[in-house]
């Protein structure tokens, strides 16, 4: 903080030494790039019309701003009580105090956020500023895997009350298009999804949702587990897309959070043999414990996709003809290719992971086997409530996925850890 001392000296020597400045409170807001604070604004919080911008080099530029009345200042103090974790640009995050969101519709509810998980998409926006057509063009609050407590309800809300604990389904569709009316609202082209540009996310003290996108949590499901209903719902949707039936053999490529949850849901759906595939041995060892009775497989270097598929089947005493269901939750091209070769004729393949926009795909193998090939995107009608039921009934234990818990003020460090591949699922507590 030597630059602050130097700035104080310059202010004094330049004649800015009257008590309204030097005895005022100091308000710092930091903008971060990686783990370093690159810029700080020193705001001299007085009724004066001048404040000073101070850079880390010690230079300053007095600027004039409109004078606020004491009434306006008091109103600001009452309104700005919504601490938020904001992505300003690539690798540039900051904590901000934003207005508490208002209920704009009679069926809206205000939720006090208590727990939020870090998703790979959050990290991707931090490092790249875009996912496909969704491009960060303005500051955006991060986060979408959240649970909280109802703080306020609109006049037409019938199913929730203040104090209820809920998991947040963070995407609100238009409700009117053919996809919405058909129950596939995850495909709505007018979807307003949290932490997807231009919409703010849930890493804040408060967030507003319609009541029917808040799923009540049973008494035996914690708020931490509630935050993990979002990724679990993704796993539920993938398993439903695959139409997994009791006794069927399933191979899941990718032992990240989604791949693990797909395996767990497949087990809950009654699948027979389950094999999890990854190149990370540590994650595979965890997968073998998390998905009861699951086998694991590390692809062998130097083998083709067809050869690795054959080796996998042999290693786990599966029929040479292949398995019933294959899911790719990695987005890696070799995994996608191997998935097609590991399936039996008439099998089902679901693409869940998003990787390169275009890849080399074994289309002849797919056609010759007459495979059912599906994509999977987020979650749709019934997925969230089924996810809650799976946890409440003990069929899926999401608590095992939690490898980190941090306070809200440590959110940036938590993002850095996830960016570096540490842990499986990190939870950020809501602002106090």
From TrEMBL:
UniProt KW keywords: Metal-binding, NAD, Oxidoreductase, Zinc
UniProt domain Enoyl reductase (ER): residue ranges: 88-428
Membrane listed as a keyword: no
Enzyme Commission number: 1.1.1.9
Molecular functions per Gene Ontology: D-xylulose reductase activity; L-iditol 2-dehydrogenase (NAD+) activity; zinc ion binding
Pathway assignment: Carbohydrate degradation; L-arabinose degradation via L-arabinitol; D-xylulose 5-phosphate from L-arabinose (fungal route): step 4/5
Enzyme class: oxidoreductase
Gene3D superfamilies referenced in this protein's UniProt entry, alphabetically: Medium-chain alcohol dehydrogenases, catalytic domain (3.90.180.10), NAD(P)-binding Rossmann-like Domain (3.40.50.720)
Database matches in PROSITE patterns: ADH_ZINC
InterPro entries on file: ADH-like_C, ADH-like_N, ADH_Zn_CS, ER, GroES-like_sf, NAD(P)-bd_dom_sf, SDH-like
A Pfam family it matches: ADH_zinc_N
GO terms classed as biological process: sorbitol catabolic process
Reported cofactor(s): Zn(2+)
Protein family: Belongs to the zinc-containing alcohol dehydrogenase family.
Function according to Swiss-Prot or TrEMBL: Xylitol dehydrogenase which catalyzes the conversion of xylitol to D-xylulose. Xylose is a major component of hemicelluloses such as xylan. Most fungi utilize D-xylose via three enzymatic reactions, xylose reductase (XR), xylitol dehydrogenase (XDH), and xylulokinase, to form xylulose 5-phosphate, which enters pentose phosphate pathway.
Protein name as it appears in the record: D-xylulose reductase
Organism: Ascobolus immersus RN42
């Amino acid at each position: 903080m030597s630059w602050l001392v130097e700035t104080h000296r310059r202010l004094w020597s330049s004649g800015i030494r009257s008590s309204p400045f030097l005895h005022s409170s100091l308000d710092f807001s930091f903008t971060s790039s990686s783990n370093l604070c690159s810029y700080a604004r020193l705001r001299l919080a007085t009724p004066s019309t001048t404040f000073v911008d101070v850079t880390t080099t010690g230079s300053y530029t007095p600027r004039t701003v409109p004078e606020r009345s004491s009434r306006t200042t008091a109103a600001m103090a009452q309104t700005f009580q919504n601490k938020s974790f904001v992505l300003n640009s690539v690798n540039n995050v900051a904590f901000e105090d934003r207005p508490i969101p208002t209920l704009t519709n009679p069926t809206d509810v205000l939720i006090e956020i208590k727990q939020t998980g870090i998703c790979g998409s959050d990290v991707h926006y931090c490092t790249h500023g875009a996912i496909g057509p969704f491009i960060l063009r303005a500051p955006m609050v991060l986060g979408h895997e959240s649970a909280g407590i109802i703080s306020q309800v609109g006049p037409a809300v019938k199913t929730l009350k203040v104090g209820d604990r809920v998991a947040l389904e963070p995407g609100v569709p238009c409700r009117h298009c053919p996809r919405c009316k058909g129950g596939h609202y995850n495909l709505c082209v007018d979807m307003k999804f949290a932490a997807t540009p231009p919409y703010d996310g849930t890493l804040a003290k408060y967030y507003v949702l319609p009541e029917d996108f808040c799923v009540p949590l049973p008494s035996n499901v914690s708020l931490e587990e509630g935050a993990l209903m979002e990724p679990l719902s993704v796993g539920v949707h993938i398993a439903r897309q695959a139409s997994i039936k009791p006794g069927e053999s399933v191979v899941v490529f990718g032992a990240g959070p989604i791949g693990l949850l797909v395996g767990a849901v497949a087990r809950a759906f009654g699948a027979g043999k389950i094999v999890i595939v990854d190149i990370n041995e540590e994650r595979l060892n965890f997968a073998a414990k998390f998905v009861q009775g699951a086998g694991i497989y590390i692809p062998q270097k130097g083998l083709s996709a067809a050869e690795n598929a054959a080796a996998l089947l042999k290693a786990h005493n599966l029929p040479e003809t292949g398995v019933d269901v294959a899911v790719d939750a990695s987005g890696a091209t070799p995994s996608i290719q191997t998935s097609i070769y590991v399936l039996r004729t008439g099998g089902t393949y679901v693409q869940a992971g998003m990787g390169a926009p275009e890849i080399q795909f074994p289309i002849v193998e797919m056609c010759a086997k007459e495979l059912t090939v599906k994509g999977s995107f987020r979650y749709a009608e019934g997925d969230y409530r089924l996810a809650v039921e799976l946890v409440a009934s003990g069929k899926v234990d999401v608590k095992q996925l939690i490898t980190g818990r941090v306070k809200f003020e440590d959110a940036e460090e938590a993002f850095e850890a996830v960016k570096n591949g540490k842990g499986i699922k990190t939870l950020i507590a809501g602002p106090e």
